[in-house]
C-alpha cells in the first residue's frame, strides 16, 4: 500500500499532543486540517499553515470534514481519569459517540478518501498491575475507570468498523505524556501540576503512598510513534507508546523539586479511585514492527519542561 499521504486531518489538533503532531505533519509538507471544539485545546496552539475548523466531531457536518483527508489522526477526547467518575456522561459521549461519529463520516463518505485512521487510545484500558513491570499489549483489558472503559470501547469501534469498511486502522495506547506546551489542569499532567504548585510555594499532594509507578513519555516520542505508525503499521495493529521505564510519583516529585531548588516535603492524600497503581509500557512490539525508539529521557528533558511551566522563574 502506498503510504505517501498528502492530506491529513487531526481531531483534537489544538490540544497538547495534537498541536505537536500537526507541526510535524506540516514539516513534512502535508496539507493538515485541524478539528477542535476548543473545550481543552487553544486556538493559538494551532500552527500557522494548518486549516482550522472550530467544531465538535459529534456534529455530523463537522465529522464529515475529517472524511476529506487521506489520513485521520483521531485524538479528540476527554482525557481525565480522576474526573471521569463525575463526568461519566460527558466522557462516554465525547470518547465513544464522538469516535462513532468520525467513523460513520469516513465510512459513508461517497468519495472514500480516507485510507488510514490512527486512534489515540490510553494505558487506562489495562487492568491494574500487581508489580511495576512493563505491560505488553496482551495484558488484561479490564479498565478501572470510566475513562478507561470509554477508550477501550472506542478502540474496538475503530478496529471493527475500519476492518469492515476497508480502511486501515491502528491503535496507539499512549502512556503519561509530558512536554512543552501542556496546559494546566487540576486532573491531567502531573509534571505541570507539581511544577506550578512548587513555583507558587505550595506543597503538592501525592495521592496514596507515592510508590505507584508511571511511564512518563515525552511528547516528541509520542509524535515519533504516530509518524512511524502512519508509515509502517499493519492494519488492525495495537501499539503501546511509552518510554519503556517507570518512575514512582515520589521520584517524580524529587526530580522536579531538584530543578526548582524546592525543599518542602510533599503532602500525602488518600489514593484516588480509578487510578492504576502501576503503569509501564512494554514497547517491544512498537520497536520490532515500527522501529519506534524513545529518544527523550525523563531525567534529561524534565528540567526544560519545568522551567517552561513556571515561566523561567524557578528559584526559591
Characterization of this structure:
It is a single chain. Helices cover 36% and strands 18% of the residues. With 316 residues, the chain is of the alpha/beta class. It has two domains: 7-177 and 217-241, 3-Layer(aba) Sandwich (Rossmann fold); 179-214 and 245-280 and 295-309, UDP-galactose 4-epimerase, domain 1 (Alpha-Beta Complex), CATH 3.90.25.10. It starts with 6 loop residues before the first strand and ends in a 7-residue tail after the last helix. 48% of the residues are buried. The model is unreliable at 312-316 (pLDDT under 50).
The name of the CATH superfamily of the largest domain reads NAD(P)-binding Rossmann-like Domain
Strands across the major sheet, in which order? Answer: 3-2-1-4-5-6-11
Q: Describe the biggest sheet?
A: 7 strands, parallel
Q: What form results from the Cα inertia axes?
A: globular
What's the CATH class label of the largest domain?
Alpha Beta
Write the element-wise H/E pattern from the N-terminal end onward: EHEEHEHEHEEHEEEHEEHEEHH
Low-confidence segments, given as residue ranges, are 312-316
Termini Cα gap: 56 Å
Helix content: 25-40%
Beta fraction of the residues?
Answer: 15-25%
Based on CA atoms alone, the radius of gyration comes out at 19 Å
How would you classify the helix and strand content by structural class? alpha/beta
CATH topology of the largest domain: Rossmann fold
Write down how many β-strands occur, each being a DSSP E stretch of 2 or more residues.
Answer: 14
Average pLDDT rating: 91
Number of helices: 9
Amino acid at each position: 500500500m502506498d503510504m505517501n499521504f498528502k492530506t491529513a486531518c487531526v481531531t483534537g489538533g489544538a490540544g497538547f499532543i495534537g498541536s505537536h503532531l500537526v507541526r510535524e505533519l506540516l514539516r513534512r509538507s502535508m496539507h493538515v486540517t485541524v478539528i477542535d471544539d476548543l473545550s481543552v485545546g487553544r486556538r493559538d496552539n494551532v500552527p500557522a499553515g494548518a486549516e482550522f475548523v472550530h467544531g465538535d466531531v459529534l456534529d455530523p457536518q463537522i465529522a464529515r470534514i475529517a472524511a476529506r483527508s487521506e489520513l485521520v489522526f483521531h485524538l479528540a477526547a476527554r482525557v481525565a481519569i480522576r474526573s471521569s467518575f463525575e463526568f461519566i456522561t460527558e466522557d462516554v459521549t465525547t470518547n465513544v459517540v464522538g469516535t462513532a461519529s468520525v467513523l460513520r463520516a469516513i465510512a459513508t463518505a461517497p468519495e472514500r478518501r480516507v485510507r488510514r485512521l490512527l486512534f489515540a487510545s490510553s494505558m487506562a484500558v489495562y487492568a491494574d498491575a500487581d508489580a511495576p513491570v512493563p505491560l505488553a499489549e496482551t495484558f488484561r483489558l479490564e479498565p478501572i475507570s470510566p475513562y478507561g472503559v470509554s477508550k477501550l470501547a472506542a478502540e474496538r469501534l475503530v478496529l471493527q468498523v475500519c476492518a469492515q469498511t476497508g480502511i486501515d486502522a491502528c491503535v496507539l495506547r499512549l502512556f503519561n505524556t509530558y512536554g512543552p506546551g501542556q496546559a494546566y489542569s487540576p486532573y491531567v499532567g502531573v509534571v505541570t501540576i507539581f511544577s506550578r504548585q512548587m513555583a507558587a510555594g505550595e506543597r503538592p499532594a501525592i495521592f496514596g503512598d507515592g510508590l505507584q509507578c508511571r511511564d512518563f513519555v515525552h511528547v516528541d516520542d509520542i509524535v515519533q510513534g504516530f509518524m512511524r505508525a502512519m508509515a509502517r503499521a499493519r492494519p488492525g495493529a495495537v501499539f503501546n507508546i511509552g518510554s519503556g521505564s517507570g518512575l514512582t510519583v515520589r521520584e517524580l516529585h524529587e526530580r522536579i523539586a531538584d530543578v526548582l531548588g524546592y525543599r518542602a516535603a510533599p503532602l500525602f492524600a488518600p489514593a484516588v479511585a480509578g487510578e492504576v497503581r502501576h503503569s509501564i509500557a512494554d514497547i517491544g512490539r512498537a520497536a520490532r514492527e515500527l522501529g519506534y525508539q524513545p529518544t527523550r529521557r525523563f531525567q534529561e528533558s524534565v528540567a526544560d519542561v519545568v522551567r517552561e511551566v513556571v515561566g523561567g522563574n524557578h528559584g526559591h
